[in-house]
Amino acid sequence: MATTDAVQRSEPTVNAHPLKTCDVSRLQPHEPSYAVYQKAEGDEAALRAHYSFRYLLSPVPDSDAVETESGKPCIYPPRFEAGWYLKYTGEFDFYAGSRESGPVINRISNPGMHYRWRQPLDGFTALRWFDLGLEHLSDGQTTEVRSPSEAARAQQAYDEDDHKFFDSVSRGMNFVSTEVRLGNTVDTFGSLYTKARFYFHKDTDVTWGPWANKDVTISDYDVLRLTWVRRLGPQAGETSITWTLGEQGLATDSWDLDYLFSAQNRWTLYTRYHHGPLQTLSNYTQERQSLAIGLKFTP
């Protein structure tokens, strides 16, 4: 997904004149974070929280690079240009009032180590940065579906439309990721993020429904993500579209359409629509539509 940059401000005094410098914090937002009220097809309504941050391991830019008079906002703050960083992305669903006991179900745990190289150029076709990462992705669940008896239980749940059973199915994988960003969100044609995954350890095969005994894995659904982001103006909203493809191409693709009404408002109202598989990692083969509304957390 699209990543972001954040700044941290401090107020030192130099030569008896109060100045304000723009420091780059080592702890920054990574992917967009949000909290939404979501209703997915074939599931109860839930509060979904998606959060993502990174910690810079490489030295941060010079904190004295930009200065303004005290009390005024920083302009043109230095940014995270390049280097090593750790990242973590998490996601959970809180079924408050829609399921008995209101469980909180972990959906994504995604730590990783990355190196980013930045080339800030203008134009839609200009390479902004290149990112290389080593990542782990899992759902934090414990129900394995490996033995014949476990496969039979999963098939029974599928036949009975017991979607709650699949919330507990364990999924885990490791992969190398590469991501590039072209253009800028405020440009006429917006910005394009392209991320590819190269799996070297994948989850167990799907053993239920029409996917049973067909060697179906996550790589059939998620190896390439294309995200286009366009900001409509300083006070206007921001639109993004994500298209996710696997090794089966259009047969298993999915779409996400996001709209942020305005990043300048007190309440950063946000809507999100999903179509296709990958609504949850534990049951990623299931095609679903979902609609959500809530807040997007912008730096």
Automatic annotation (TrEMBL):
Which lineage do the record's taxonomy fields give for this organism? Bacteria, Pseudomonadati, Pseudomonadota, Betaproteobacteria, Burkholderiales
What superkingdom heads the lineage? Bacteria
Q: Which molecular function terms from Gene Ontology are attached?
A: phospholipase activity
A GO BP annotation: lipid metabolic process
What is this protein called in UniProt? Phospholipase A1
Q: Specify the species.
A: Hylemonella gracilis ATCC 19624
Listed GO cellular component terms?
Answer: membrane
- Please give the SUPFAM superfamilies that the UniProt record associates with this protein: Outer membrane phospholipase A (OMPLA) (SSF56931)
Quote the InterPro entries the UniProt record gives.
PLipase_A1_sf
